[in-house]
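Consider the following assembly input.
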Amino acid sequence: MNLEKVVFGFFVLLAATLNFGFFIGDISNPELHNIYELFAAVVVSLIATVLKFGDRTQLGAVHLATSLVADLQLVAAALAWTYAQHISDAGVTAGSTASVVSLSGGALVANMVSVVLLVIETVSFHRR
Amino acid sequence: MGNPVHGFWLRLLGRDQGPPKPSRTPFRLRGRVPFASAVQAEATIFLILRLMRAPLIVLITIFAISVLGLTLIEGRDAAGAPSRMTFFDAFYFMSYTASTIGFGELPNPFTASQRLWVTVSIYLTVVGWAYAIGSLLALLQDRAFRQALALQHFTRKVARLREPFLLIAGYGRTGELLGRSFDALGRRVVVLDVEPGRIDALELEAYHSDVPGLVADARDPGHLGIAGLGNPRCEAVLALTNDDEANLAVTMTAALLRPELPVIARTISPAIEDRMRAFGSPTVVNPFDRFGDHLRIAMRSPASYQLMTWLESGPGAELPERGRPPRHGRWVMCGYGRFGREITEDLRAEGLDVTVVEPAPKDPGSSTLPGQGFEPDVMERAGVADAVGFVAGTDNDTSNLSLIAAARRVNPTLFVAARQNRPASAPLFEVMDVDSLLVPADVVAHEVFAQLSTPLLWRFLQQVPHQGDDWAAALITRLTHHCGRHMQELWKARLNRVEAPALTGWLASGEATVGDLLRDPDDRDQRLPIEVLMVLRGDEPTMAPDDDFTLAPDDELLLHGKVPARRALGSTMIVEATREYVRTGRHLPTGWLWRKLARVPRY
C-alpha cells in the first residue's frame, strides 16, 4: 500500500463528495445549501490541486487541469455568495442561491472527471 | 521531417511512417541529435513543484482551520446582540492578520473567546506563511533550479534563432576573439563552456546581437544538441576548448550526427590531430604547427608573411611590422616540449642548425643541452653569443621572459621568437618587443576567422606563399596606398545575375576590365579605392589582377576597401544608369519613359 496514493485518493474523493453534498437539493432554496459545506469543498479542492503538482505523466496533467477547473468554479461560487450576502442590497435570494449552486455544479462535473481518472489509473495499475 | 523535435517524438511514440524522404530534408541528420538535457531541465522544474507541495498544503490547512474557527465562535455585533462572523469577514480578517498587516478587529470589536482563538491562529498562520515563503525562496536560490531555468532559457533562444549561426564550444581567449570578430561581421554565435565565469563574461561583452551561452560540458552530445547542433541553421562547429580530449569529442559528435557540417578544431597534440581526422574531414588547427609554418614563410618571404598576418587579423587591424628572421646561421631553442619539437623540426627542415636547451631532456641527444637556459654557463655552452636566432618556447611565461632578457644581454642582435602562454602576460611581451611572438589563442582565432569569414580569403591566403616576396611587397604597397595602414572591409562579390544584374551584358561582351569596373560612379576619371585581391574563375584563381584584367560572367572577386567604396561598387553592379556612366561616361535616364525616348541600347 502506497500512503501517497491513499492520501491522494482520499482528497480527490472527498472534494467530489463535499461538492456533491453542497450541490444536492433544490437549487434556489438557500436553506438546503450549507455554506460550511461550500467552505470545506473549496479547502479540500485546493489541497487536492496542490497534491497534483509535479506529476509529469499525461494522466497527472489532466488531473491537475480538472482540479484547476474545480477550484475556479468553487472560488467563483464563494465569490457569488459573498456578493449576495455582503454587497448586494437584496441579500441571499433564490436567484443568487441558484447561481452559487449552479457554479458549484460545474465544479462537481470537474470533480467527477477527477474521480473517473482516479478509477482509470487504479484499474490500469492492476492490469500491469 | 525537418524538425528534429518532431523526429524525436516520432521515434518516442514508435509511429514509424516509413523511411523519411531525403529530398525534402533540408539538411542531413544521420542520427537523432539528443535532447536529453532539455528533458532533464523540465524534470528539475517538476521536482521543484513537488517540493512546494508540503508548504502549500500546510498553509491551506492552517488558513482553513483559522477561518472555520472564527466563523463558529460567537461574537457580538455593534448593538451587542450575538452574531457570528461570515466566511467573507473571517477570511478577510485572517488574510491581513496572517500576512502581519493587522488592520485591527473588523467588522466589530471581538469578544474574549474570539480573541483567544485569534491568538492561537496568529501563531499558526505566521508560522505557515514563514514556512511557505521560506521554502519558495530557498527553492529559487537552489542551484539545480537556477541551472534548469538557464538551460530552458538557452534552449528556447537557440531554437528561436532564425539566422545562420556558429556553434563555439569553449569560450576562452580564442572563443572571445572569434565571437567579437564574427559579431562585427553580423554573424550569430552560440557558446558553450564549462566555466560559469566565462559564460557570465558574455553578459559583460558589448555584442551587437544576443549571444546565447550555456555552462555545460561540450563532451556531452546532449549539450551540443541543445546548443543547436541539430538546428538546420547551424553553419559550423568550432571546438576551441583547452582540453584536446573535449575538442576530439566535439569533432566526433559533430562528424557523426551532422557529417556535412564544417568542423574546426584546435589541438596541440599531433596524436589527437590524427584521431580527429579519422572522423570526416575536420579542419584541425594546431597553433604550434602553424607558428612553425609561419616562421618558415617569414624566413623565405617576409612580405608574404606580413600580408597574411595582416589579412588574417580582421577589420581594423594595423599593418604589422615586417620581421626578417635570419635565413642562415645557428638558432638556439629553449624548451623542447611540443612547441619546441615542432619549431625545431621546421627550422631544421629549412636547413638551419639548431641547438636545443631543455631542463629535463627525454632523449639525451648530442645537440640537447640540459639546463633552464637562463644560467650564464648554459648560455655560453649553447653558444648564444654567436647564434642568429633564439626561441623562448617553454610553457611558463616567467621563464620565457627571463630567457629573452638573458639572451639579449649576451647577444643584442639576436632574432627572438617567443611563446606567450597566458593572455595576462601580453603587456610584458609587448615591452620586450619580441621579433616573432606566438600567442596560441590568437593564432587559432586568426586561422578560424580566415576560414569562416570569407571562404575566398582562405583560398587567397593559401596561394600567397607561392607568389614570392616581391609580389607580396608590391601588393602591400598597393593596399596601403589606397586604404592606409589599417585593414578595411574584406568582401566577396560574385558577378552573376543575382549580385550584379547591371553588369551581365557588359561582362558577356568581354570588354569589362577591372580598371573600368572600379571607376568612381561620382566621377569616372577617379578610381575607387578598392583593391582586387583575387579573381576566382571556376576553380582558377588569379592573384591580385591589375587594372587591365578582363572580367567574365560568374567571376568571384575578393575585394578590399573602405565601406563607402564598397557601396559605390555595389551601385555600379546593380543600377544600370550607374553602370552606363561608369562604362561610357554617358548619363542614362533612370525612368522608363525617358529611357524609351532616349533609345538606350539594352545591355
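Residues 3-127 of chain A form one domain. Ask yourself how this observation constrains the way the partners meet.
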